[in-house]
Amino acid sequence: MSKSAKTILQINASARKTGSVTRELTDSLVTRLLEKSSEAKVISRDVSQGLPFLDEDWVGANFTDPAERTAEQRMKLALSDTLVSELKTADTIVIGTPIYNFSVPAALKAWVDLIARARETFRYTETGPEGLLKDKKAYVIVASGGTKVGSEIDFAATYLKHVLGFVGITDVTIVAADQLMKDPAKKDAALAETLQLAA
After folding, report:
1. Which positions make up the binding site for FMN?
2. What is this structure's pTM?
3. What's the rounded Cα separation, in Å, for the pair 116 and 107?
């Protein structure tokens, strides 16, 4: 069951703008969540449009004390800061991703790299890393042509669940519209599941 959401962060990663199963399912879920909480705000982030990969300048800026960063370093981290802010603001996160070659699209991996930041979304302690983004709900909607979600060759859903938990988001529901080349009806089953989850 979903709690009432004040801010929903909707992330789409499919390269397809039309005919995308994950886009259809995330739209459906977000629409239903808004019906339940009409005052909620939606932040939309389409990572398929492209995100920069980490480079040496970004790493250097990230590891520089915030009080000592140059204007150039702050600019280098500006997009990452925005993405982190979106994630911190959101009460509910809805991620839609296809499985490309057994894993997430490169653009979604780039998003992960930009939001997984020590002192911002997690911290290191004497007992190990601790996620700082707590009391949030996440839905991860995954579509695939042949890869079974949760199987030994699924490096998408399992990866995202681990990453979200790493930054403190442990309440994660996976919705699978998988192996659609074999069974197209799984799309309808996934759609029904999203409607039930938001009920």
Report:
1. 14
2. 0.94
3. 14
